[in-house]
Amino acid sequence: MIEQKAACPGCGRPNSAELCGDCLQWQKQVGFVLENRGLFYYDAGFRQWIEGYKFTGDYRLRGAFTAELNQALKNYRDYLICPMPLSKERFATRGFNQVSGCLELTKPAYHFLLERKELAPQSGKTRAERLKMEQPFTLKVSKEKIRNQRVLLVDDVYTTGRTLVHGAELLYQNGVETVKTLTFAR
């Protein structure tokens, strides 16, 4: 697991106890910094898990770190928990949302607040292409449901931060008070 005290307070990058260069760039570009907590290092073991779960479709693997996820979610008891959505096309291909699959085994309820437009998957894009990505989300709920609320966006992997920043931007534009993020790996 990633030691949070030794991680970037913005993106959760390990071994970067102050805001990293990427987070300083995000702050300049969008006017805020995410407060992401990454649970695990994106290492060979995590890569093997995500390939089996997300890309091969072994749904049984969704419970691999339920205890750690439950523990992390205790820090967000007064937040609306929102898994990052898949496009309808990606959901139809995969058959499940990898994030909500894991969240189903945890105690807190979660809500799909965002809807994803049909765009090419991020996994096949370069870093530069990811950073230039257009806003892929629309709001799935009424503004009244989220106004002045705290939201925790949950995703599987923090790569460039672009997807999570897009989600946070849309939520802030629609009256959310605070957005934090949690990723399974960084």
From TrEMBL:
Residues 136-185 form the Phosphoribosyltransferase domain. CDD domains: PRTases_typeI (cd06223). InterPro entries: ComF/GntX_DNA_util-trans, PRTase-like, PRTase_dom. Belongs to the ComF/GntX family. This is Phosphoribosyltransferase domain-containing protein. It comes from Enterococcus devriesei.
